Amino acid sequence: MLCNTVSRASRIGAVLAWAIGTTITVAGAAELTFDFHIERGRVAESTQVIRIKQGDVVKLRWHTDRSMILHLHGYDIEKKVEPDTFGLMEFTAYATGRFPVEIHGSPGPGGHSHGGNPLVRVEVYP
Fold this sequence. Notes:
- A hairpin with a 4-residue loop joins strand 4 (68-72) and strand 5 (77-81).
- The chain is built from one helix and eight strands.
- Strands 2-8-7-4-5 form a five-stranded mixed beta sheet, with no helix packed on it. The chain has a three-stranded mixed beta sheet with strand order 1-3-6, with no helix packed on it.
- The radius of gyration is 21 Å and the shape is globular.
- It is of the alpha/beta class.
- The chain starts with a helix and ends with a strand.
């Protein structure tokens, strides 16, 4: 009976240690909000690159002078943004790398353009 009690206590301790370790990892993630004002298809130079860490919970708030669709590549998030409102993109940064945010319109036969200068670059570090 004593062996069974010790064994059970060890298993409970191991589960608690794992849970505490998991909580610490999650607790290290930041919740970050970035505000962008798009005027004539551009944002301020100081906001063209944002740097975050893997696991961060991120909100990108967009305000624009004209109607547009924004696309965060790599995370495949699209958001239609209208003047006089805020458009919100929310995601958890699970993938590392550099991800462009581009304005999608309909200038070409494909329905949207790629390859130009992105509006913003989101850099996610491990």
